[in-house]
Write a structure and sequence with these properties.
18 helices; single chain; 56% helix; mainly alpha; three-stranded antiparallel β-sheet; 3 strands; binds acetyl coenzyme *A; 397 residues
């Protein structure tokens, strides 16, 4: 067998793969996706079946443990997650002292990292299976509380207690708005399921990179939150809505936005379009589009942004630029319209994505920490800087 390490040491041979377009960073049994065929499966189960028949906590269990839970397992898990219905008092205070205008992703990332100050028993480099299970339920319970608290704080409103008699999604909506409709909660649950994992995306890879140094789980998940914040990743859902608003305010001319997105001199991209892996269609976008119609009808919302979004999609799908580059709407093209209809402020959309993606991050972290072949992530580089030169004293420069 070829000794790659020796070869590299002796020859300096290194693979350059900008953006890791074609580099497998790990083996994983969690999520399968085929970008050409538009297939997405969690642990072998098609996303379409899970979105129709399952619920978010069941999917979380499935991702983490690899199998669908029995009735008893699911009930115990729901109880366990619901038992994390409080934040440490100090953390409540910290959240309440952030400026009302703070971006929710900054609050969420800081508050998640700050959990490490309150749960110091979980900072060791080698968590046991029990520790990991405990942390899984804890973060599912507490990140939900942080998101709801950060919203209430931004509105100058008192927090609403978690109600363990409600489903995960219904409890979240109730903590946000003091009320929650079953159908709307179901729609949110579907959105969370669709976002729950997506193999080695930017934030999951970040979680793996941070986790590979054996950093504690709070720091690791906080890193994932930060990666998700970017516009090219989870931040796209906020950017889509802002883009649709802009198009509406400029008279609703979708054509102009398309031309701008095609102009290589202009950094503007059609937000919510394109995907590193999906080159046919994003199966999640198909499901979300249906949910979007359902939610707007149920809530009796007639949103002109939806009309603009549909027009934009139709035109892009007929435009040679987008067709040639295989650019289709991704999961976030329609999710923002649903969040908006639910009354969630635009700058909170990416925090909603965090709620959904958390079980995926945790499942991949568990997989990483249990993989005997796992190593600290430490890529190499191709050095293009100056060759050796001598230091010049300040007066000589
Ligand atoms: N609008 C206009 N042109 C685009 C877009 C877009 N949204 N996306 C890609 N392109 C073009 C690129 O300019 C490039 O053109 P070229 O070949 O003429 O140079 C070509 O399509 C290929 O695009 P890349 O940027 O090389 O593709 P990559 O895989 O690196 O990026 C990404 C994928 C980041 C998703 C990109 O399509 C994008 O920026 N989309 C908009 C942001 C977005 O919606 N992100 C959410 C992704 S889903 C998620 O993370 C949940």
């Amino acid at each position: 067998a070829i000794d790659i390490s020796r070869l590299r040491a002796e020859t300096g041979f290194i693979t350059l793969d900008n953006g890791f377009v074609n580099t497998g960073s790990c083996t994983s049994a969690v999520t399968f996706l085929n970008g050409e065929k538009g297939i997405l499966r969690y642990r072998g189960y098609p996303i379409e079946q899970l979105a129709e028949k399952s619920n978010f906590l069941e999917v979380s269990w499935l991702l983490y443990y690899g199998e669908l839970p029995t009735k008893a397992q699911l009930e115990n898990f729901e109880k366990k997650v619901a038992s994390f219905n409080k934040l440490p008092e100090g953390l409540e205070t910290i959240i309440s002292t952030f400026p009302k205008t703070a971006h929710p992703m900054g609050v969420l990332s800081s508050a998640t990292a700050a959990l490490s100050a309150y749960y110091q028993d979980h900072l060791g480099p080698n968590p046991t299976d029990n520790d990991k299970e405990e942390l899984f339920a804890q973060l599912l319970g507490q990140v939900k509380l942080i998101v709801a608290r950060s919203y209430r704080n931004s509105q100058g409103l008192d927090p609403i207690e978690s109600d363990s008699s409600l489903s995960y999604s219904k409890d979240f909506l109730n903590m946000m708005f003091g009320e929650a409709d079953d159908e709307v909660a179901k729609a949110l649950d579907v959105l969370l399921i669709l976002h729950a994992d997506h193999e080695q995306n930017c934030s999951a890879s970040t979680v793996r990179v941070v986790g590979s140094s054996h950093a504690n789980i709070f720091a690791t998940i906080s890193g994932g939150i930060d990666a998700l914040w970017g516009q090219l990743h989870g931040g796209a859902n906020q950017a889509v809505l802002e883009m649709l608003e802009e198009i509406k305010n400029a008279g609703g001319d979708a054509e102009k936005a398309l031309e701008k997105a095609k102009d290589k001199e202009d950094p503007f991209k059609l937000m919510g379009f394109g995907h590193r892996v999906y080159k046919n269609f994003d199966p999640r976008a198909k499901i979300i589009k249906v949910q979007c119609d359902k939610v707007l009808e149920k809530l009796n919302v007639n949103d002109p942004l939806l009309t603009i979004a549909k027009g934009l999609e139709k035109q892009a799908l007929e435009d040679e630029y987008f067709v040639k580059r295989k650019l289709y709407p991704n999961v976030d093209f329609y999710s923002g319209i649903i969040y908006k209809a639910l009354g969630i402020p635009t700058n909170m959309f990416t925090a909603m994505f965090v709620l959904g993606r958390l079980p995926g991050w945790m499942s991949q972290w568990k997989e990483l920490r249990e993989d005997p072949a796992a190593k600290i992530c430490r890529p190499r580089q191709i050095y293009t800087g100056a060759t050796e030169r001598n230091y010049k004293d300040l007066g000589e420069r």
